[in-house]
Amino acid sequence: MTAPASSDTLMEDIVGLCKRRGFIFQSSEIYGGYNGFYDYGPLGVELRNNIKQAWWRDFVQCRDDMEGLDSTIIMHPKIWKASGHVDGFSDPMVDCKESKLRYRADQLFFAPVSVDGETIGYVSVVECIDQQEVAEKAAAEMKRKMAKQGDLGPIELKEYTEATPEEYELIPSPATGKPGSLTEPREFKLMFETKVGPLADDSASAYLRPETAQGIFANYKNIVDTGRVKIPFGIAQIGKAFRNEITPRNFIFRSREFEQMEIEYFISPSADWKALHREWIDTCTNWLVSIGLPREGITEDIHPADKLAFYSQATTDLMFQFPHGEQELWGIACRSDYDLKQHQEHSGKSMTIYDEDAKEKYVPHVIEPSLGVDRTLLAVLSAAYCEDEVANDKGKVEKRTLLKFSPKIAPVKAAIFPLLKNKPELVEVAKKLYKKLQRRWNVFYDASGAIGRRYRRQDEIGTPFGITIDFDTVEKDGTVTLRDRDTCEQRRVTEDELIKYLEEQIDA
Ligand code: GAP
Q: Is the pTM of this model over 0.85?
């Protein structure tokens, strides 16, 4: 039976497999690595491209109400002033003066420890899947070390951002375990700054974009003026974004250079935005399921009204059960007309559109589904990673690691094997079929080693189909053996049946 790996080791197993099989490497590894940056190897780049292509096909090419865009990473700095990023795009940061480590204050939690109602100290913990358990253990240990008798009070964790100035001195640093070395939270700007042009003064300052969305707003007028768009319509973009995250972590979940797939969907100010928002949430959920994520692993986190940005009418995040816990995968926000109005004011250019149906002119409102490519890839890897047991060529049962990728996004779609590499008649037919399939899909030819071992190598990288050319193929009826990665079942098919089946599974 196939079972997902244990969640305790799942992240480690995925990171190990990604490095071993050439999906993802730590950036600049030969120089000791560079925190928050990752490189995608031969299989990783295929998987990444397949995710992006599926998104582009489903959200741009298959819709009549969507236009595509590819804007620059560095844009006029005034864009970031108008959008509010220059003044407001920051995270609260806290330093440990002793260890020199930095934490995000909203990812650092603390609680007073009380015995029979008397506070005996504080515990702190960095956000993690079992933070409550970790904090409770630390509290029990504190009570034991201080030899206190009585009942331990409940541990109620709070974000460090909610600590009072008196508490800063009492909360222990997670690095040293001792109180007194944590600073009060300060805002840390997340945009990477650079210089453009030969001058190095302040007038040359520019930013690497922290989201692709502003490139869409900045081009909205161009698209309205040149396309034949009609409200409601969307503009979609895939591209790199950069954030100087204080604590990049959990592999590619939070990195400093990542890629986004964003849509700004423009609607009339009088449209039923709640119904349209709901529609987008459902469309996005269905898309995640279509690329292989389990529906039961996706939940909705509705931001409470008092936590919304002042311009936002509503935000719902699609959450996914990642190996390190349930976390945001896709943010779907109703951003009103805030961004367009800001750009209208700062640029002096009108952002109005004439609505032919309503016979009126207005600045549209917007619904923004914003998804990270790298986070989607991590979700896909987590959902696909499985371990089971199968018999090898000699009938001995062995542990098998497999990635159950949907054929739509699998990096290698099929592997073609001649049963024996020293039989030219098998090799010739296998190579001919390989060359034929290669024109349509990314397929792999492998002639070396026992056939069971060759299957296993493909299972580990998630290749859904194995095609073996044997003596029956060349001497009898031309049929090949088609093996299914997940069930290991094999059946004989003709070449026409094979191609039809692959088309249905991969291109559907
Ligand atoms: N334009 C809206 C926007 O950028 P966001 O919630 O900050 O909203 C949208 O980002 C998505 O981008 C997230 O849901 C996540 O998938 C991805 N993302 C954000 N920061 C990331 C990071 N540091 N590393 C990887 N992905 C990130």
A: yes
